[in-house]
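Bench log, entry 3. Co-assembly request; chain sequences pasted below exactly as received.
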Amino acid sequence: MMSQFLQVLLSGLATGSIYALVAIGFALVWQAAQTINFAQGEFVMLPAFLVLVGLNYFDLPLWGALLFGLGMSVLILGAAFKKLVVEPILPHGGITLVIATIALGILIRESVKEFYSAEGQPFPSVLPSDPINIFGAVVSLQDILNLLLSLGIVVLLTLFLNRTRTGRCMQATAQNPAVAEILGVDVKRMVLYTFLINAALAALASFLITPVYLAKFSNGETLGLIAFIAAIVGGFNQIRGALVGGLLIGVLDNLVATYVTAEYRAALPLILLILIILVRPQGILGTPEGRAV
Amino acid sequence: MYSKFALALGTALLTLVGAAQAQEAVEIGVVVELSGAGAPAGTNWRDGIRIAVDEINAEGGILGKPVKVTEYDTQTDPQISRALVQKAIDGRAYAIWGTIYSGSTLVNMLVAQQNSVPQFVGSEAPTIVEKGNPFVFRTSSGAQKGVPALVPYFKDTLKAKKVGVAWVNNEFGRGGRNVFIAEMKKAGIEVVADVPSEQAQTDYASDVSKLKQSGADAVFVYMNQEESARFLIEAKKQGLSMPLIGEVTLTEAKVIELAGPAAEGAIAHVGITATADQVEGIAAFREKFVKTFKRVPTHDAIKGYIGAWTTKYVTELVGKFDGEAFSEKMHGLCLPATKYPRILLDTCWDNRGEMSRPSFMVQVRNGSPVVIGTVPAN
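Structure output for the full assembly:
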């Protein structure tokens, strides 16, 4: 029984940490452009297919294909997204941009479907998938490594934002772009960095989750929704909030499916969302006044 | 002046030729899951049909008329499938080939029935042939015939006393699960874990952990292809050690491709499989399919192929394009493979449209499904 609890908890934390990576992306884009990127789920789905293009069309080794996928993701989902979608549309208002990201999500989804078929595709695991024995309990090594890697990325990102000059400039830009500019911060560059980081996080989440979920054009629909809810539950304007929200949903989902009901597990994030909106609208770690990285 | 006249004449001639061809061709509606969760199955079904139609047309069509197929994508949505069956029939379809997902078939087969249009389906839920619809015909045995064929394997080969069942919560999965539980009860084997999962579910961590904890000697896995692959991947991650036995999908080529090494050792009873290349017709179909589509056909591809060829054989036995006469002929019909080679194996349909033919036990070994035994027709 203990072994089962340990495995379920571990699986929940591992999946939750990947949700957290995606949820952090929501928070970052909110900070940079004051908009919600509803194509975020597709931003996680696409990099896996870019890796498959590297593997199957350019015959790259796995590490080369992963680098190719990461590079292309940063270019397409970071730089090009900012230049071609956010910059031209943002002056027309946040709602217009939200609608544009919904359209972008559909475009990415349907393009992948057209180009790579509607069928799921196998995706190589970057981590070992054999189980290991911990105190008599056989648990998944892949889950442990997924969790450590995701948390490591979050720690590095937090250190970068808090301990480096560029990171602090990005925070200043998020809090008050006008004042930051007066103080000599290159606001446009900082906003670009935010989009690039979001794209890189989405790509890393993609590489970790796709070996289990399989590469499929529709993967972004569920992932995007759960990560969006995780960001709200944790606090939309806080990176640590997104982390808490992601982990919470991952763990609760697995615990409920194992010990309460598997049939209604899909409803759990929505129930959590309703509770948070009723009890603490700013999210578990969010602040009511708004924006601070 | 002359050029205008020539253009008008040309257009008129083309229209006449087109109209004549359209009049002569036999319209068939392929209504199937080409996107959504059912896309892997539907795409194979369609491609098997494409090969069959090329062959049929090369051999003079049906009763001398070429076959013209229109493909409709149900998006794995039962309501859309119903509308598309109606659309195909409005387009004067002589027969409907599809759908595969039982939830869709249960909804759309009423439309074909109301219009007396024969319908070949890839669905395996027991309820399909229990509704008294004389126009629906299977292309593989239903779960109520396929699953019982597994009982001797659990009882005599594995000597299982306790089993678990992991199933997808749709019409297909529910049907198979119900038959399995009833059969285990009859065989005196205790079902210690009954684990449903949702269609298109991605996270199987809790499902696998429940089975792991149940103390089952073996697990019956009854899911669609992508779900089966995700389940196998999670089972490997968590080190699920008991044998995993499925019906049809678990050892399909697509599942093996998706699950990779996680599929190793999985066993399934399959109505028909492209790996049974000791059967001449199956080997020939497989070769043609691989050459055309650069991939190995799944059982759905063979089912689509058989549905198409059965339409030709039976229509020619009837001697006319008449849905009601076709339906009457099908009930209680047996087509021996020696006389009707593209039927691949000796096949019979009972008076409900259920089919019966020899089947196979298959295991994944070194990344490929291998036939480890045959099961006589029941």
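The mean pLDDT of chain B is 90. The interface with chain A takes residues 34-36, 39-40, 43, 169, 195-198, 200, 202-203, 205-207, 209-210, 212-213, 226, 229-230, 233-234, 236-239, 254, 257-262 of chain B (CB under 8 Å).
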